Amino acid sequence: MKVLLLILALTIAAASPLGAADVPPLEIHAILPLTGPASFLGQGEAATLKAVEAVVNKQGGIKGRPIRFVVQDDTSSPQVAVLLLDQLIADKVNIVLGSSLTSVCGAMLPILKEGPVVYCMSNGVHPPPGSFMFTSAMWTKDMIVADVRYLRERGWTKIAMITSTDATGQDAERSLDEAFARPENKNVKVVAREHFNTTDVSVAAQMARIRAASPDALIAWSTGTPAATLFRGEQEAGIDLPTLTTAGNLTYVQMKQYAQIMPKELYFAGLPQFAPESVTDKGVKTAVTAYMTSLGDIGIKPDYGQASMWDPAMLVITALRALGPAATPAQIREYFANLGRWVGADGIYDFKALPQRGLDDGNVIVIRWDPGKATWIGVSRPGGMPLRR
What we know:
alpha/beta, 12 helices, 40% helix
């Protein structure tokens, strides 16, 4: 009798479907700078993936399967990132999140002949329409359009600028020139244009020339340690100007590290997550709240590293839920290309109108670091027009 009962139990167990815990997770790959100069971005982005993983699995995963993000470290190196991507291509992976730097994503783009779809976290890369690469947030030139609009409307029309000589700085300088050339900015003048290498430890000569030009405001465009070189150079030159820098510096770690050398007025082209009080769309407000809550649930006070990853990760989840985990890179690319209205924490996406990115300058909110509150505050409406306080 015991033998019969054991056989019956084994038969029932064999016929029963696997429990959720027994279903192998769907692995979604990411290539991020967990070490190296851009680790302050990569670590934040990896933390966001943990939050997304928790949210998605709580909702039932994708087609009943839990997900697991598999993150590989590119060490902030284009060469390493390409090697990692080559292996994922050989493994026929359909989608990859990352990497985080303009130079790294730029190195990845040429090898995406037939996929996979790569969602890059750098807004300084401009993949051609129809390519397999998409980019996070607004592109640099859209952020700069909003930045210059804010400067102009504040009456700061004599502008000095200093940019790095690397890919990030070159992209910023081109974008600045395009913004200054717009008809509405005809009264905005560049009175000083300076450059520096990201390995330079001093910019004293450049800052002396900037001071001599008597600008109304300074655009100091570089990310991470080189940005500290610029801020220190301002301080040592006795420059006390409203200073605008890249969103890549929107991290609490940097704000704490640079507290003693930071300009009194430091502005950034921000995302809606940094200024919920300036968000006007109810759907975007809801998405921002979900983002903040999800990161808070795992004990993280989010900044740019987290913000740049949230929407791309959720867009990837949306695509895989719609198409299934086995979707081809071409199918995923087509899905994104035809996504006309998707509401995220960065704004309302329209990939039909804005290929490869979905967002434009109308989603940018200019923000300022408030040392007293130890956080950023919104100083513009979406698009860069100053708030009238």
